[in-house]
Design a protein that fits this description.
Length: 263
């Protein structure tokens, strides 16, 4: 069963409510993401790939169609419930790391749990465990300005993982990095899929980075023009058990239940 599904998705910018008269960025997209897949969405600038990712993550609401995450229609949720689902069930990674400069790395990673009012000791333990997963445990107590760009991005990936999300959505995560740090970030994402069963969707304009994924979706003019599996890359697998610390911090995946309950 798909963990994430988009049906007849459309997005028009500058359109009046309920109208498609604006600039069409996404045109009738249907796509399913299976648990444990590593999917790259690629295409030229302006093809709609980042807009599609933002729709899949509930950052932007569609003009038409719907997005189902673990069976929950994101468009049917109010703003508060949608924010809870995004925080608990979706891990976001962006080109700019979005780490707060006044906080240490471990404090930045633990922020999603702090927002859920998880006790401080459990936040710290879960954040340090996530940092160990991405090879940054030894830098946990440093502030962002003491870290390289690659280290900051790995910290941002740890923050995306700390709630044990259903899916990680990464929008050009290597765009601000040099080639060596880009390679390390992509290898980290591959290992999360291959070794931990994490579902990852990555947006990139770089064909070399897209080739690291097990599945490549190519977009042009707001439409999917190809969707192919790629040999020699992680393509899917069963979802692993939720780590104990994240399960306790998350209330056992309460984001999905909360979304269903309060629709």
């Amino acid at each position: 069963m798909a963990i994430l599904r988009a049906e007849h998705l459309e997005k028009a910018f500058g359109a009046a409510a309920g109208s498609k008269s604006g600039v069409m960025a996404i045109r009738g997209v249907d796509v399913e993401i299976e648990p444990g897949q590593f999917v790259a969405i690629t295409g030229a600038s302006g093809s709609g790939k980042s807009t599609l990712l933002h729709l899949l993550g509930g950052i932007t609401r569609p003009t038409a169609g719907r997005v189902l995450l673990e069976g929950v229609d994101l468009a049917a949720l109010g703003d508060d419930d949608l924010a809870v689902v995004r925080r608990r069930r979706i891990g976001f990674v962006f080109q700019r790391y979005n780490l707060l400069p006044e906080l240490s790395l471990v404090e930045n990673v633990g922020l999603p749990l702090v927002l859920d009012r998880i006790p401080e000791a459990r936040c710290d333990a879960a954040a340090r465990a996530a940092l160990e997963t991405v090879g940054m445990g030894h830098r946990a107590d440093h502030r962002p300005d003491a870290l390289s760009g690659g280290e900051q991005q790995r910290g941002a990936i740890a923050r995306a993982l700390v709630t044990s999300p259903a899916i990680v959505l990464a929008d050009e995560p290597t765009g601000a990095l040099d080639s060596e740090n880009s390679r390390r970030v992509v290898e980290l994402l591959r290992s999360l899929v291959a070794d931990h069963g994490q579902t990852v969707v990555l947006v990139t304009h770089d064909p070399g980075i897209a080739a690291a994924a097990g599945r490549c979706i190519r977009m042009a003019d707001g439409r999917i023009v190809s969707d192919t599996l790629q040999p020699g890359s992680p393509v899917g697998g069963g979802r692993p058990p939720v780590p104990r610390q994240a399960r306790e911090s998350n209330g056992g995946g309460g984001g999905r239940r909360a979304g269903r309950k309060r629709r």
